Amino acid sequence: MIRTRQLIRPLLALALAACAAIGFAQQQVQQGDPPARVASLSQIEGSVAYAPPGETEWADAGLNRPITQGDRLWVDRGSRAELHMGSSVLHLDGQTFLDVAALDDDVMQASLNDGTVNARVRDLQPGENFEIDTPQLAFRATQPGDYRIDVDAKQGTTRVTVRSGAALVFGAGGQPQQLRAGQEAAFTGQDLDRIALPAAADNGFDRWAQARNRLEDQSVTARYVPRDVVGYQQLDAYGSWAQDATYGAVWYPREVAVDWAPYRYGHWDFIAPWGWTWVDDAPWGFAPFHYGRWAQVGTRWAWVPGRLGPRPVYAPALVAFVGGNGGVDWSISFGSNPGIGWFPLGPGEAWRPTYRASSIYLSNVNRYVAYGNRYPTTYVHQHRPNAWTSVRVEDFSRGRPVHNSWQPVRAGEIGRAQIVNQPSALPPPRRFVENNAPARLRSLPPPQAMQPAATPRAQPIFQGQAGPRPPVAEQRSVQPLAPPRMQQERPVPQPRQPEALQQQQQIRQQQAQERAIQQQQRQQVQEQRQQAQEQRQLQHQRDAEAAAARRAQPMPQQPPRAMPPPPAQVHPQVQQQQAPRHEPREQRVRPQPDPGEKGNGNGPDEQGRGRGHNRGG
Predict the structure, then answer these.
(1) Spans of biased composition, class Basic and acidic residues (predicted)?
(2) C-alpha–C-alpha distance, residues 63 and 16, integer Å
(3) Is residue 605 a part of any domain in this protein?
(4) How sure is the predictor about 496, in pLDDT bands with cuts at 50, 70 and 90?
(5) 306: left (phi over 0), alpha (psi -120 to 50) or beta
(6) What SS3 state is found at 608?
(7) Is the peptide bond before 445 cis (omega within 30 degrees of 0)?
(8) CA distances, 216 to each of 71, 88, 441, 576 (Å)
(9) Which of 362, 395, 425 is the C-terminal boundary of a domain?
(10) Taking 50 as the threshold, does the pLDDT of residue 563 lie above it?
């Protein structure tokens, strides 16, 4: 027995070491995988602008565009925005600048350079960090709760209010201060020097954020999908849930177009590191197009979330592509123009990304909704023409609205179609922001906000094709933010850029040239408008001078007019006699006299003249 135990112990130790090595290897494989979690603007009131990494110009931020690390948001004066990231939500007040530094399952880190944020942290998993950095401190929530952070960039202050929960604030010294529920503190500098500020009173923005939180607490969709599904709360007002004998719980959208189909009303955008990403036009169009699958139940389209569990993995678009320009045997064409088509994946069908990913990522992204990890050779919607959508490659690569130019695919061509599985088969991006209009803002972010004062405390989660990084467990134990003056003492390694970012840099160079031309044209138009305005002002001044000259000339003397006597001095009888003279006579046709009565003095003419003579006498 002892001999057996002696043999088992080294074997067990060897097995544990092998498992640890496999686990570490799996973590290393996942280095090139994109983040599993993103954020989305679920509510916009007013004007909200965004700028992707490396961009210096702002574009109008619309609903349903994924927000990931490196993206910056500016909420205009008098505007508001709601940003969902998993089960947590940020409410942004007007004139607020937010920079998303890191976003994944383990870390949510944002830099607040100016403005006000209400943060609602619904759940914190072990090892998960929820952090908001300001120019003065780093705020970290240690418990689920409601928090408010105010940053005054001009005064150089940060105020932290803990309505519920608990939090830690870190300064330059690294020694944190704890804030509990009901506490509020204001700081200046980077050494957590407290100052006295008036208490933050609830205003219209706070009441709006609280009302949005209550609406989310009452969400019906939360009974069918986990709250980690980004955009789930938008489904309540635009559809209904039902139980299907085949698929279980399904969601039906209301008030869609007659020719509506999934992934038809919206546009494609090239967003790193995923590449081509679907951005839907519907106010509910985030969760059903990045999680779950679509099915046709009778004549209606139904979203099938599947057995979604905690932490579902975000996907850019759950479709199968057909055509493109990758040298496949068959491609969709619009006359002499090449085309590309797609259709939604059905329940149980595994999704294959068009970018490189590890086997662990492929397993996680298809978890809960696919029957195994085998990719289907035929798809349930592949032979349904009403499920197909196709456009020209030119429209696809420039991100133009699909519903304006899509065409159905003929049933005879569907049988010869080949599914695109390689990234090279999709068209490269040309000007993916063409559908994003330039921002029209009443106020601009401060210039220093373009360079966030808070330097991220952790390296970005997604490093592309960069070298090895520490295990995830070490990533969770990183220290909070160090101020800029401390960061300058140690160099920050620059990771290699992924292929998608290199493509974006080329696109930005082309866009910079196009923007320069557009800027020159706008300046010319502005100069023409200014000249026209000056001419109108000059003409207005001349008209005013002429009017003033006319008023300065003496008026000619006119003889006084004879005023009629007042009505009270006129005798009533005279008025009664003279009134008929001013009354219009009724014109009558005079009858021809009878020849036998001519000259007898009793005809109508003689009688009329006689009456007139009597009235005159």
Answers:
(1) 580-597
(2) 48
(3) no
(4) very low
(5) left
(6) helix
(7) no
(8) 25, 11, 29, 84
(9) 425
(10) yes
Token pair for 90: 């940020």
d(CA 545, CA 217): 67
Asked if residues 109 and 102 have their Cβ atoms less than 8 Å apart, the reply is: yes
Please give the residue that has the higher pLDDT: either 313 or 537.
313
End-to-end CA distance of the chain: 158
Mean per-residue pLDDT, 433-439: 55
Residue 318, both tokens: 């759950």
Instruction: For residue 141, tell me if it sits in a domain.
Output: yes
One-character DSSP codes across 465-511:
T------HHHHHT---PPPHHHHTTSPPP-PPPPHHHHHHHHHHHHH
| Type of residue found at 395 | D
Instruction: Answer yes or no: do 163 and 278 share one domain.
Output: no
Residue with token string 């004998």? 245
Whole-number percent of the chain with pLDDT over 90: 45
**Type of residue numbered 65:** R
Q: Where are the alpha helices (DSSP H) in 218-324?
A: 287-290
pLDDT at 168 (0 to 100)? 96
Residues 188 and 276 both lie in one domain? no
Q: What is the pTM of this model?
A: 0.69
Q: What pLDDT does 461 receive? A: 34
How many CB atoms are closer than 10 A to CB 549?
9
Alpha-carbon distance values, 191 to 16, 169, 170 (Å): 45, 11, 8
Residues 54, 189 within the same domain:
yes
Distance of CA 527 to the CA centre of its chain: 33
Last-in-domain residue among 218, 248, 276: 218
| Domain presence at residue 25 | no
Same domain, 162 and 284: no
Q: Residues 96, 116: contact at Cβ < 8 Å?
A: yes
pLDDT exceeds cutoff 70 at 112: yes
Find, among 292, 329, 285, the residue nearest to 308 by Cα. 292
- CATH (domain of 53): 2.60.120.1440
Rounded CA separation 590/600 (Å): 17
Task: Report helix, strand or coil for 145.
Answer: strand
541-550 contacts: CB < 8 A, separation 24 or more? none
| Amino acid letter for position 602 | N
Q: In this structure, how many other beta carbons lie within 10 angstroms of the beta carbon of residue 103?
A: 25
DSSP state of 569: G
Do 380 and 419 belong to one domain?
yes
Q: Are 348 and 297 in contact (CB under 8 A)?
A: no
Q: Is 254 found in the same domain as 193?
A: no
Q: Beta-carbon neighbour count of residue 201 at 10 Å?
A: 6
Two tokens, residue 505: 């840099």
Domain span at residue 55 reads 44-218
**Cα angle for residues 417, 418, 422 (degrees, 5° grid):** 150
Q: Are 105 and 312 in contact (CB under 8 A)?
A: no
In the block, residue with structure tokens 């923005």 = 205
Give CA–CA dist 181/197, Å, rounded.
18
Backbone angles phi, psi at 102, to 5 degrees: -150, 140
Report CA Rg, the chain.
38
Cβ contacts of 156 within 8 Å, gap of 6 or more: 135, 136, 188, 189
In a domain, 458, yes or no: no
